[in-house]
Amino acid sequence: MSTTTPHSPMPKPAPWSSLFQTHISRLPSPEFVLSTLSPAQKDSPTPFFPRARYCIYRGMWATLPENKHNPAPPNPRVYESDLPTFTSDVRMQKIPEIFATGAGHGGVEQAQGSGGGGAVEAVYWVKEVGVQWRVKGRAFVVARDVEGEGEGSSGVRTLKSEVGARMRVLEEGMESEWSWARELTAHFGNCSPGMRGSWRNPPPGAPVKGEPDKDHQLGQKVTDLEDPVARENFRVVIILPDEVEQCDISDPEKARRWRYKYVEGDWTTEELWP
Q1: Which residues pair with 48 in a beta bridge?
Q2: Per residue of the chain (274 residues), what is the pLDDT tens digit?
Q3: Residue 168, beta-bridge partner list
Q4: For a FRET experiment, which of 79, 89, 189, 259 has its CA 20 to 30 Å from that of 199?
Q5: Residues 6+ apart with CB under 8 A from 149
Q6: Which pTM does this prediction carry?
């Protein structure tokens, strides 16, 4: 079983994380806007252009929320983090964008596995409390190669090194009981059968020409946690925040913005005008 060991010293808890999670819990659906950088065409005046889409927040990495409907065995509570997650389909454009804009400038082939590291920004507007959260950082993708035959790849090594450095140990001596692959499957199980079935959809963005093959149909429901087609396309994406902004406009006479920056294992805080 592949495990991870956070770098020393262990990162301190983020001062914004508890309130952020409290605010997100107030949302009827934890939706947010994710922006990535897409390489521009050769004749473009800029090398990249932004692409934005709505995603669903899936909790902090290594602390997947309990769900009585999740049939997947959970990891023991060995680690915790302040790293927001969401799920995606490897066939979506955001995945190769995350690889292409990372330090390794990964191509299409590398984007099929774990790794990445591209710049992203996530924006959460919590109307119920009048607060906007902006999370800037790098995104890393978790695929099935995270353990087993593929775990020696550079992408997997980078993922475990970068993400592992931001994970905190809760139970010393239990690290070997925690599995990256089990966490990935737990995220898959945490989705509804209909959502799991979406990873068996026809290729996103492909032209509609005739009937899709039997493995790629709309409206399927998946109950098998190891469904080969759905699991081939399923990904968990982890955001490593480098900067977080909290803009509170709930009271116009007391509106404030706070900027938190991650520096060498700790967070700085600066109060700003909104």
Answers
A1: 39
A2: 445 544 558 899 999 999 999 999 999 999 999 999 998 888 999 999 999 999 999 999 999 989 999 999 999 999 999 999 999 999 999 999 999 999 988 888 999 999 999 999 999 999 999 999 999 999 999 999 999 988 889 999 999 999 999 999 999 999 999 999 999 999 999 999 999 999 999 999 999 998 999 999 999 999 999 999 999 999 999 999 999 999 999 999 999 999 999 998 899 999 999 9
A3: 80
A4: 79
A5: none
A6: 0.95
3-state secondary structure labels for all residues of the chain: CCCCCCCCCCCCCCCCHHHHHHHHCCCCCCEEEEEEEEECCCCCCCCEEEEEEEEECCCECCCCCCCCCCCCCCCCCCEEECCEEEEEECCCCHHHHHHHCCCCCCCCCHHHCCEEEEEEEEEEEECCCCEEEEEEEEEEEECHHHCCCCCCCHHHHHHHHHHHCCEEECCCCCHHHCCHHHHHHHHHHHCCHHHHHHCCCCCCCCCCCCCCCCCCCCCCCCCCCCCHHHHHHEEEEEEEEEEEEEEECCCCCCCEEEEEEEECCEEEEEEECC
Residue 179 in tokens: 């599995």
Residue with tokens 């499957």: 185
| Residue 103 exposure: Cα atoms within 13 Å on the Cβ side | 10
